[in-house]
Amino acid sequence: MKRLHTFILKSFLGPFFMTFFICVFILLMQFLWKYIDDLVGKGLEWNIIAELLLYASFALVPMAFPLAMLLASIMTFGALGENYELVAIKASGISLFRTMRPLFFVAIILSGFAFYFANNILPVTNTKFGQLLVSVKRQKPEMVINEGVFTNDIDGFSIRVEEKSRTSNMLYNIMIYDHRENKGNIQVTVADSGHMKISEDKKFMTLTLFNGESNTNQNPNERGKNKRYPYRRDKFSKQVINISLKDFDFKRTDSERMRPNYRMMNIDQLNHFEDSLNNDYKVRVRRFALNMHYNYVTNRELVNLTQAHDSLMKVHNFKADTVIDYTSLFKSLDPMEKNQSLQEAIAGARSNLQKIDQNIITLYNVKKNLNKYTMEKHRKFTLSFACLIFFFIGAPLGAIIRKGGLGMPVVVSILLFITYYIISISGEKFAREDLWSMFRGMWFSTFIFLPVGIYLTYKSANDSGMLNIETYQNHIKRFIRFFKKNSREETINENSSANK
User: Fold this and answer.
1) Among 87, 154, 273, 449, fewest CB within 10 Å belongs to which?
2) What letter does residue 406 receive in the DSSP assignment?
3) Residue 498: helix, strand or coil by DSSP?
4) For residue 346, is pLDDT > 80?
5) pTM of the predicted model as reported, rounded to 2 decimal places
6) How far apart are alpha carbons 351 and 357 in whole angstroms?
7) Burial of 441 (0-12, 13-18, 19+ CB in 10 A)
8) Which residue spans within 72-203 are E strands per DSSP?
9) End-to-end CA separation in angstroms for the chain
């Protein structure tokens, strides 16, 4: 048995690590498509991009673990079935459960590591990733001078170049607006040609201009009707301008300044924030309920019901001493009193409706934000437990499919994982919108796939023909033969009738 278990482990670990890195790479491509606009054209060094991709890869690990487990399980047992090794193992008296036993312990260990990773390592890497991503987004793009358009990448300047040399760094027909004093287009410089050079640290730019002039509108020197606007023109054959460049050098954002995010917390931190947000939500709901328009008795009862737990609080049980027939009472009023009662009722209803409209969106956003922390806490468990579920789905499916490699197993794995993901996202949406309880919504996909895994494992261990692909292939072949036979007989009968 030790040799068999060692053989099973060796057959599983190779495909698992291969498929794991393939899954991370594929998911990382999705990240690049999402943030490609924030990375391109900013002159970032390769180590900054590599560090960002590394942190992004860590964030994708919890999603890659279940998919790699599913794909590796199907590939391992599919290869065993394809090479008739699984048949030999069963013929020797070893059941499928005993064959799966070493991989079952591997799945348990992997699920525990996935939870540890999601709870202890992932919050740290998400913090680093968020800090670095904010720094990258704040980084200004490299200054690129295009022909015929104004470039406003430099604070306080607007530069336009008519033509750029294809063989050198010379620029022709240059126009520069100086806006550093925030007084409009009062200073403009034009030159026939010139060139620019940016320092290696990207803190300064030296702009050398040839054969041009600088025009400046100065402040008026008189008031009233005699106000005059002096105009100054300076011609030059060569002029050197040193411009200070701000925010072109990469600066890391301080992690202490970052706002706490639910993806950057472990279980203890999530419980703390969830409790604080839940108390704040209850206070808001109580304040909203007490601001509504009620009668005195209902308002007193509502105050007592919504009051926080207090051992000294007196509970008043209001009981009606008399029963009033409002229909008879309203009919007994004179027209003026009826009109006054209706006006007061309408005014109270309008006041309540206005208060509901003012508070419903705020309360919805507060509850939605609270649900994010609760969902993240459940997600750390569901994604970890998914590794175990996909093992019990992948192993029997591999024994049924009897195909190894990256062909059929990849197709089946992708279809199953997409189905799991769609069901999981649907459950999370219902939980986020409070249509379902948080536990029911976050564990909805688990409730569906866990029985499927148990059922497949049981049927595969008992060699059920129901899950044998060859059985369905034989049924399809029989149907095709029956259809062809009937078609041939109909053709013969038609020919016989035509000959007669």
Assistant:
1) 87
2) T
3) helix
4) yes
5) 0.68
6) 10
7) buried
8) 150-151, 157-164, 171-178, 187-198
9) 74
| Measured distance CA(224)–CA(258) in Å, rounded | 54
How many of the other CB atoms lie within 10 Å of CB of 454? 14
pLDDT at 283 over 80: yes
Contact at 8 Å (CB) between 438 and 382?
Answer: no
Determine the 3-state secondary structure of 23 from DSSP: helix
Contact 114, 65 (CB under 8 A): yes
Q: How far apart are CA 207 and CA 472, in angstroms?
A: 77
**CA 265 → CA 53, 123, 261, 363, 372, distances in Å?**
21, 5, 7, 24, 12
- Which residues are CB-neighbours of 307 under 8 A, at least 6 positions away? 313
Check if the beta carbon of residue 280 is closer than 8 Å to that of residue 288. Answer: no
Longest dimension (CA), the chain: 122
CA 74 – CA 164 distance, rounded (Å): 60
> Do residues 195 and 208 lie in contact, with contact meaning Cβ atoms separated by under 8 Å?
yes
- Provide the 8-state DSSP code for 167: S
CA distances from 351 to 281, 303, 355, 363 (A): 23, 19, 6, 18
- pLDDT at residue 490, as a whole number: 65
Tell me the pLDDT tens digit for each residue of 293-315. Answer: 776 666 666 666 666 655 555 55
Position 56: which residue type? A
pLDDT digits (tens, 9 = 90+) for 106-121: 899 999 999 999 999 9
Which span out of 24-38, 146-160, 209-223, 379-393 was modeled with the highest average pLDDT?
379-393
**Percent of the chain's residues with pLDDT above 90:** 4
Using only C-alpha atoms, the chain has a radius of gyration, in whole angstroms, of: 37
Q: How far is CA 335 from the centre of its chain?
A: 62
C-alpha to C-alpha distance for 279 and 267, rounded to whole angstroms: 18
Q: Which residues of 279-290 are buried (b: 16+ CB within 10 A; e: fewer)?
A: eeeeeeebebbe
- Residue 156 predicted with pLDDT over 60: yes
* Integer Cα distance of 204 and 249 in angstroms: 10
DSSP letter for 147, please.
B
Give the separation between CA 6 and CA 168, rounded to whole angstroms. 66
pLDDT of residue 447: 92
Token representation of residue 478: 């029989």
Cβ atoms 12, 72 nearer than 8 A: yes
Tokens of 171: 């620029």
The pLDDT assigned to 42 comes to 60
Closest residue by Cα to residue 459 from 396, 391, 394, 392: 396
